């Protein structure tokens, strides 16, 4: 038996001397390499599915062995009341009545599977739990993994985010999730996670409450030295999404509050902003040449300083109100974006909302955040062209930069960058014209309107503009990309319009569609007239 490329024998023998393992791939064209990579990804999904199933079945065998060994030693029944009281006292004293039987079936399966797959115990336990969920809680969704419609990472997203759904509701959630996966093209993890959350919000709202309560309890923060980077430490933690969004927005606001000539990167400024918050400050010092402090003159070493001279310059009273306009005295205002239905804001329903970069949040959290927020109300576009609807809208469509409300409408209709697989939050990316804007003659095409705009992060915006990629956008706002190899991908299989029906737009009027609509109206009117004539000519009783 040999592998596809004939490189290594399954028993572990080394390749034949002088054989190049990668030579069969080196001679393939770019188109064939992409096809090979996609085929390999599909086979990997199928194989990881089988591996998880094998881990779960191994656990079944070892648990049965453990139960059999326990029953052979002791049936578990007390022969008398005194024996029952003695066993109860041992349990209350903290002694495990089953410790004499050694590791249980789950522990044995963990060790055996981890050794076979060269995994840590945590990874082996996770694989066993994944296989169990695939067999009993999400069998239909597991089938989509076996068919390579999703990969293992996306199945585990579905598994974790449905963990608080009760057993009675789980079949409904599983069926809805499998149907949504099979009905759509492959999508990025951000879109997939939002789709799973929407299904859980729809079919199991109580699970969302339990998950939020668990998230509030399961918070924590650790700071420890980095094992791989001497002189550095790592910060890791878990906090609820709302608090994380507030902290992230605060760090970004502080990092962007310095001058553009500051030589630090955005990541460095955010790290410095976190340290500034730890020292009780609300702003970040700018390190550009204009703001850098001048080096202090050297003082004689023998000079004695009084305690009152330890500070530099006058110290202002904290209660005094500062009237200057420097950024040091004005804490940057954090900003994050939420998309919600107006009916949910007013309390008429409890539909979930979208917190940009974090996914869905429940209605109560949204209303609390909206209490002090700036609101922008957007509506979906109509069926007609701007020039026919409004002169101001037509003039706006001839400008390169979209207006604020149009930007909000386009971003609210998406969840992230529309390039296949990208997860960049939608409010941090560019808006790209699908049909290029003609700066010399704006009226000739490439209008600045919803049906010609899509969110793209800066990296993919440059790839699309200067690379050999081709993009398209139909009248239903579906965005397609054609790679240089000829492969075609759908960039937005699941969008904000799937969450908020009010954002869905109807396609513009077309003479062909109008003709069919007129014919349908004429047929309906004719049938109605004939029915009215029959009713008049045949009054009751019949």
Brief characterization of the structure:
Residues 94-412 form the DUF222 domain. This protein is mainly alpha-helical and 542 residues long. The chain is 46% helix and 7% strand.
| Domain module count | 4
| Unreliable parts | 1-8, 300-329
Shape: globular
Total of DSSP H or I helical runs spanning 4+ residues: 20
Report on this structure.
- It comes from Gordonia westfalica.
- Pfam families: DUF222.
- With 542 residues, the chain is mainly alpha-helical.
- It folds into four domains: 162 residues, no CATH class; 47 residues, no CATH class; 34 residues, no CATH class; 142 residues, no CATH class.
- It has 20 helices and ten strands.
- A three-stranded antiparallel β-sheet has the order 3-4-5, with helices on both faces. Strands 8-9-10 form a three-stranded antiparallel β-sheet, with no helix packed on it.
- A hairpin with a 7-residue loop joins strand 1 and strand 2.
- The termini are far apart.
